[in-house]
Amino acid sequence: MGDSEATPLMRQYRDIKQGYRDAILFFRVGDFYEMFHEDAVEASKILSIALTSRDKSSESPIPLCGVPYHAATSYIAKLLKAGRTVALCDQVEDPKGAKGLVRREVVRLYTPGTLVDSEFLPPAESNVLVAIASHCRASSGLKQVSYGLAWMEVSTGEFSLCELHGDRAASALRDELARLEPKELLYPDDTPDDARRWITEISGPRCCSQPAGWFEFDAARVQLQEQLRVHSLDSFGCQGLSIGIQAAAGILRYVRETQPSASLDHIRSLRVHRPGDGMHLDSVTIRNLELVRPAGGFEAKSGQAESTLLAVLDRTVTAMGSRLLREWMLRPLLSCSAINARLAAIEDLKDQLETRVCIRSALRTVQDISRLSSRISLGIANPRDVVALKVSLSSLPALHNRLRQLTAPLITQLVEAWDNAEDLYELLEQAIVHDAPVSLRDGGILRDGYHPGVDELRKASREGKGWITALEVKERMRTGIESLKVRYNQVFGYYIEITKSNLEKVPTDYIRKQTLANAERFMTPELKELEERVTGAESKLVALEQELFEALRRGLAGHTARLQDISHRLAILDVFAALAETAAVNRYVRPLVDESSSLEICQGRHPVVERLDLSGGFIPNDTNLDAASRRLHLLTGPNMAGKSTYLRQVALIVLLAQIGSFVPATSARVGLVDRIFTRVGASDNLAGGQSTFMVEMTETAHILHSATGRSLILLDEIGRGTSTYDGLSIAWAVAEFIEDPQRLGARTLFATHYHEMTQLETLRGGIANYRVAVQETDGEVLFLRKIVPGGADRSYGIHVAKLAGLPTDVIDRAQAVLTQLEAPSPLPRPSLDTQQNFQFDATLPKPHPILDEVRQMDLFAMTPLDALNRLADLQRRLAEE
């Protein structure tokens, strides 16, 4: 449609749509948001609404669909769930006062990472927006990329950044993203192709490039200073940072673009995270330990706890507390003093049952103050949001009184900084009715006595309705028509309705207004005058209440920082009380956390598995590791006997201790751990062209390159994805490398089915053998799930196969083959040299290295030319030999 054919409305739509090509434009027309052209076609399918057209009489009618403006939220939610973004275009001037076409503007762009509406947000989960900036430099002839990462929770105003440098910066960045689970990821449009490629392949968030100018350093620094109202970012710990600041500015600019009508005054602070601030958990460990998401290792039965650590711990009663607990769990502490301060607070609450119960009861009335205050600051809070804030503030005095009974230092600090916000509560108590409506259009928001103008108009409205009722009685008496009624609708206003059987009694001064099948409607001059007085008062009342509520909301917005502080203190208190409750209910004990290299756990339990309905109950186990002596425990025993559960439970106990929680054991001493590494479970990465064994080796390599002597390493069945000799050789070498204090010397639990490795105990002073106890009676095997000293001499794989249900013929044949293989053979079996180095008996034929190379060639992945070149190379090397 050309300009000459387009109506002014459609030209306005087209001009606005130009700036939001990738979004579905909700274009306000009267009481509807309308969509046109391709937006209408797509939205009608997603929303299951009728697709019609505009200008049906023209040769090219315009596809059209629409939704009522008061119900837009539910439709927007469906579009977001379908992966689309929505631009909300509203009328920004009163149609009554507009000259010509009403002015319209996009007031908000809905994207996955910028949502603030409670209808779109799970209460217990953060909705994170992240931005990545990168910088590439050459070092010793090699290209090295550093990354700046910033993240924001727009619905709460939380804003953070970090910088990642060095050879493993990209890996560390992926780990941070696994921790944050962002909904949307931004990056500059000039990002190098190699970095862009792996960024866009990240599963989960919506990835989108933004103008590189948004990330330019000088402009970024100025923009952040203006937003945070400071002359220097150094006050937030940004000294020496650059690409982190660029990423933060990219986020801020994006939020401003998507929320053009919002002030963003709730974004008042910036947190800087530096390596070493907390225990680093990589994405593999987060997944393998099932901290926040089940990994499929075991499934909780119906009605029982979910199979994640977070599900077991999360007894919080506020949304803020639940989100904070998740953050603590994924960022364990590295400071003994900070850990022990948390433990003292939890112990105080655990020991005082009555106080804990009262605190948790009071916290249950607290709504999500963090998100409420942000909605108030953004100017989108409705009357019911303000009532929720008032109810939340009403609990503060009772909580303050209860906290005074506790003595732990962190609790005392909360008490000293406590703010009951009594002035805000009194203001809201005087202003807002307790059952305020959601919408400003409905009126009835403010209390009687709050404002004289509201009282006067409310009185006029009430009295006016009384006048209408009196007029109805008067007209019945005057006309003698008992069925006469004075009624009202939004189209015709007030009218007198008389049935057709009584029309002969209608006075001559009645003015006919509408004819129906069984009645007629009339107006009188007196009724017209009353209508103007009544409806005028009502419309003025709604307008005045809206104006006063918006003024009240602006006043509350000035207290945003104060409300955020209150919210943070309540979240901390909620987490302390929840962890104390969990400790009391689940029989957890306070661990001793110190700077030693010890890890001593008495009767430790897996916090998740112990809650499942296991036959025979959960069997606790001890652990005694020490980096100075027995730093590597070699764990042998049959599959399905509980080795993996034991490995995970040790890691979870350490993690719980370092977030400051009590732990499932009868006693525990945890020497500080800087990182937990896990290589457990079998998985592949077919999309990335990696087999199970390649994934295993890649993860093992990451551990050996990244771990320190302070780390805790859990290895399960290293080397199982290749031939027996290859696998045993790799597992042996890895164990030696980790145990060697000159190379690594980290505390390690090493589960293996290679029984030959038990000889390492006699060769290495830092290695000790442990096994899973098994009871065998008349050929039947019972796995006792108890970890005891010593090495296992059998894997019991055939017994496990029998339990899994393999046919009896297969089991019998497997047993026969095993007996034959274990019998003495004329060919010498592989043995281990008594020396420290691992080698097989020299009498065994050694395979030629070129034969091994040929066996490992992937012919199907090679082109004919590659195969010929490879064959020529092998022939040349054989000739040289």
| Strand order in the largest sheet | 13-23-24-25-21-26-27
What is the percentage of strand-forming residues? Answer: 15-25%
Structural class: alpha/beta
Low-confidence stretches: 297-305, 684-689, 826-845
Shape: elongated
- Percent helix: 40-55%
> Can you count the beta strands?
27
Major β-sheet profile:
7 strands, mixed
Amino- and carboxy-terminal Cα gap: 79 Å
Number of helices: 28
Radius of gyration: 36 Å
Question: Could you tell me the mean pLDDT?
Answer: 87
Describe the structure.
With 881 residues, this protein is α/β, with parallel strands linked by helices. The protein has 28 helices and 27 strands. The strands form five sheets. A seven-stranded mixed β-sheet has the order 13-23-24-25-21-26-27, sandwiched between helices. A six-stranded mixed β-sheet has the order 3-4-2-1-5-6, sandwiched between helices. It has a six-stranded mixed β-sheet with strand order 11-10-7-8-9-12. α13 packs across α14, α14 packs across α17 and α25 runs antiparallel to α26. The longest helix is centred in the middle third of the chain and has 33 residues. The N and C termini lie far apart (79 Å). About 4% of the residues have low confidence.
Keywords for this entry:
single chain, alpha/beta, 28 helices, 7-stranded mixed sheet
Summarize the structure.
The protein has 881 residues and is α/β, with parallel strands linked by helices. The protein has 28 helices and 27 strands.
Layout of strands and helices, then pairs:
Layout: H1 8-18, E1 24-29, E2 32-36, H2 37-47, E3 52-54, E4 62-68, H3 72-81, E5 86-91, E6 104-110, E7 129-139, E8 142-153, E9 158-164, H4 169-180, E10 184-188, H5 193-200, E11 206-210, H6 217-228, H7 243-258, E12 271-273, E13 280-281, H8 283-288, H9 309-313, H10 319-330, H11 336-351, H12 353-363, H13 369-378, H14 383-393, H15 396-403, H16 409-416, H17 422-431, H18 452-479, E14 485-489, E15 493-499, E16 511-515, E17 519-523, H19 525-557, H20 560-586, E18 592-594, E19 598-604, E20 621-626, E21 632-636, H21 643-659, E22 667-671, E23 675-679, H22 692-706, E24 712-716, H23 724-739, E25 747-751, H24 760-763, E26 767-777, E27 780-789, H25 797-804, H26 808-822, H27 849-856, H28 864-880
